[in-house]
């Protein structure tokens, strides 16, 4: 422990006497020599000052304000406040002056009418997060990662450090992906961060199928689930919405420790059930799956069946019956080759591939392949095409198989089941044709489009 010296509190005499008293202070901080009260000096209030643990006597000379703050924090120089952080109550030392200069909450805590006079316990923040918080407070350091950024946002919100809140939100906006979008949406809703919430919903709308199938979806609050399912631009099949909501309801039953029955599933779904658009489902799926699950009443099933056959006159249900207006009504083709010829390229002898990257985030709907060389094939035939989309780590993002009629058309369109959001990264599309054939080819290809 650092040694301490007793320093006189209030001096009642004139400046001349005050200066004379302080001239007699021990030269070396931490000398542990109690100061004698001279005649004329008033009552003393002991103040503990931590000793400087470094041999660098003139450490201030070569440092600006932020670097000096960092040096004092890391070396515990003259700290006057102790925190006990986390459940393990780790001791962390800091400076009141710095904290109250950066946070209105700390100002009220340390200077208000009911100010803290002893150590401060903060059990709801982990020590690593609080250390990162202090580094920003003291010298603007900001180096979050996927594990600390949301607890750091919570801490910044709790202590009203708006500049740190902005940095955390901006970081999250740029890091939204399939694995974290639900968790970020939940935090954005909890902290009323409208722009971050909008960014999450935009991602979910474009990746609806993948998000609803992800394990994190069942952890969303009812409020956030409602927010997702009310989006008209949500790009997802209604059958997938139904399966996702069944999984969500099952998880809710498990959390409440209640039986997994159709009645209980409907009960925990509540009004969320009415956000599923049953009448736009495939009729056979509704008959085989939905009708057998008993989430709907008999009257509701009859009404939806009659809707399938156009015989309904009065709909007493609360379900919506219009398809979602997915935001991919138009598409644009990006062509490397604007010219082609009938030169034969033998396709199907192996795996063909093309690697590409985008200059900005965009949505990939599918790809184009050339048709057969018309002078070689007199009749059209069906060929099985297998396409994969891989990311930089060779992880498969899409894998589909399509039957294509290989006629003499110049280009054939192969669309994915769902659009894929592409970031500014390298991707690879591979293609394998089951039946070898000769196809057209492009010429004078571009390196960028």
Description:
Keywords: Cytoplasm. Helices cover 35% and strands 18% of the residues. It is α+β, with helices and mostly antiparallel strands and 449 residues long. The protein has four domains: 1-51, no CATH class; 52-172, 2-Layer Sandwich (Potassium Channel Kv1.1, Chain A); 176-308, Serine Threonine Protein Phosphatase 5, Tetratricopeptide repeat; 339-443, PHR domain (Jelly Rolls, Sandwich). Strands 5-10-7-8 form a four-stranded antiparallel sheet, with no helix packed on it. Helix 5 crosses helix 6, helix 6 packs antiparallel against helix 7 and helix 8 runs antiparallel to helix 9. The protein is flat and about 90 Å long.
Short description:
The protein has 449 residues and is an alpha+beta fold. The chain has helices at residues 15-23, 65-75, 96-102, 104-111, 127-139, 149-158, 162-174, 181-190, 194-206, 208-213, 222-229, 238-256, 262-269, 283-293, 298-308; strands at residues 81-85, 90-94, 120-122, 339-347, 352-357, 362-370, 382-390, 396-405, 411-422, 426-433, 437-443. The strands form four sheets. The protein has a four-stranded antiparallel sheet with strand order 5-10-7-8, with no helix packed on it.
């Amino acid at each position: 422990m650092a040694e301490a010296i007793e320093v006189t509190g209030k001096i009642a005499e004139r400046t001349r006497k005050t200066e004379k008293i302080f001239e007699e202070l021990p030269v070396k901080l931490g000398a542990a020599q109690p100061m004698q009260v001279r005649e004329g000096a008033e009552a003393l209030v002991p103040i503990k000052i931590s000793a400087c643990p470094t041999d660098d006597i003139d450490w201030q000379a070569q440092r600006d304000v932020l670097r000096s703050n960092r040096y004092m924090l890391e070396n515990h120089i003259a700290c006057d406040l102790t925190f006990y952080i986390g459940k393990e109550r780790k001791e962390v030392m800091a400076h009141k002056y710095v904290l109250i200069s950066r946070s209105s909450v700390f100002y009220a805590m340390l200077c208000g009418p009911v100010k803290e006079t002893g150590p401060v316990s903060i059990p709801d923040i982990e020590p690593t997060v609080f250390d990162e918080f202090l580094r920003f407070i003291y010298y603007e350091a900001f180096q979050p990662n996927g594990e600390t950024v949301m607890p750091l946002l919570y801490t910044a919100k709790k202590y009203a450090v708006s500049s740190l809140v902005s940095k955390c939100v901006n970081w999250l906006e740029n890091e939204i992906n399939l694995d974290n979008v639900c968790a970020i949406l939940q935090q954005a809703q909890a902290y009323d961060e409208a722009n971050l919430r909008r960014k999450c919903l935009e991602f979910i709308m474009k990746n609806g199928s993948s998000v609803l199938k992800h394990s994190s979806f069942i952890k969303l609050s009812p409020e956030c689930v409602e927010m997702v399912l009310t989006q008209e631009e949500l790009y997802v099949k209604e059958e997938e919405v139904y399966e996702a909501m069944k999984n969500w309801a099952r998880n809710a039953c498990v959390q409440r420790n209640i039986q997994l029955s159709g009645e209980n599933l409907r009960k925990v779904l509540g009004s969320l059930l009415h956000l599923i658009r049953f009448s736009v489902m495939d009729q056979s799926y509704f008959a085989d799956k939905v009708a057998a699950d008993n989430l709907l009443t008999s009257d509701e099933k009859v009404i939806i069946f009659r809707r399938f056959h156009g015989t309904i006159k009065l709909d007493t249900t609360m379900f919506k019956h219009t398809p979602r207006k997915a935001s991919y009504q138009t598409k644009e083709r990006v062509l490397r080759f604007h010219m082609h010829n009938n030169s034969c390229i033998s396709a199907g002898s192996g795996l063909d591939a093309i690697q590409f990257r985008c200059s900005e985030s965009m949505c990939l709907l599918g790809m184009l392949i050339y048709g057969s060389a018309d002078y070689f094939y007199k009749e059209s035939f069906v060929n099985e095409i297998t396409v994969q989309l891989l990311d930089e780590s060779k992880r498969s993002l899409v894998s589909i198989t399509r039957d294509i009629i290989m006629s003499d058309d110049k280009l054939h369109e192969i669309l994915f089941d769902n659009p894929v959001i592409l970031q500014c990264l390298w991707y690879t599309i591979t293609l394998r044709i089951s039946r070898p054939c000769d196809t057209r080819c492009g010429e004078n290809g571009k390196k960028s489009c």
